[in-house]
Amino acid sequence: MARRKHRRWHTSSLKRASGSTVGKRRPGCVEGPLQIRRYNDPVLRSKALPVQEITDVERQLAADMLATMYASPIGVGLAAPQVGILKQLIVIDVDRDNPECAPLVLFNPSVQSLTGKVTGEEGCLSLPGITADVKRAATVVATAQNIDGESIQVEGENLLARALQHEIDHLNGVLFIDRISGLKRKLLRGKLRKLQQQSQL
Ligand code: NI
User: Where do the structural domains in the chain lie, given as residue ranges?
Assistant: First the structure.
């Protein structure tokens, strides 16, 4: 997921989440190690498969995904299908400017409960230049495995709740533009067509 930089959010819930730390932050890096797939790539519409065993291969993938996400100045989340890998793995860091806050690495995330509704602006690293207001649950409880294969529960509100829903959607081949009204999507048609043309080059 991508966010405009100037927005401020409360992210205290992230500190409660028992996420894991992998990878070093690479703030000066302009290009991540993995190529981000763009809108219209069929992999973005495919379902990711559960990760049965978390090995060094998965841990390296998580580290590379984080580095790729941090390479974009506005990236706060990334799902494995966005780098062409159909595994149920997402990484999130909604407080990326805070070095005390570890990023979340979640394998096989599963939503347990959704509460409330809130509308907020979203973007996506696979749809650069496109943003829209999306209605999502205000709070989310999800279960997952961390980088060590331990079962964890993550509670998110505000931006973390939004990022969890956005990234878990990616694992099911769903993009944020699927969650806006037909009218709003119509307004984005020109931009989407442009993206489609770019990704065919
Ligand atoms: Ni996205």
Answer: 42-199
What does the alpha-carbon distance between residue 52 and residue 88 come to, in Å, rounded to a whole number?
10
Between 2.40.160.10, 3.40.640.10, 3.90.1440.10, 3.90.45.10, what CATH number should domain 42-199 receive? 3.90.45.10
CA pair distance 91, 106, nearest whole angstrom: 6
Q: 22 CA distance to ligand 1 centroid (A)?
A: 20
Cα 15 to middle of ligand 1, angstroms: 22
37: number of Cβ within 10 Å? 18
**For residue 4, is pLDDT > 90?**
no
Residue 23's pLDDT is 44
Query: What pLDDT digit, counting tens, does each position of 138-160 carry?
Result: 999 999 999 999 999 999 999 99
CA 145 to centroid of ligand 1, rounded, Å: 21
Distance CA 26, CA 99 (A): 12
> Nearest 5 degrees, angle CA 94-CA 99-CA 101?
50
Based on the residue annotation, tell me whether 150 is a catalytic residue of this protein: no
Which residues make up the environment of ion ligand 1, defined by Cβ < 5 Å? Answer: 1, 124
pLDDT of 165 higher than 60: yes
Q: Using CB atoms within 10 Å of the CB of residue 9, give its burial: 0 to 12 exposed, 13 to 18 middle, 19+ buried.
A: middle
Buried b (16+ CB within 10 A) or exposed e, 122-159: bbbbbbbebbbebebbbbbbbebbbbeeeebebbbbbb
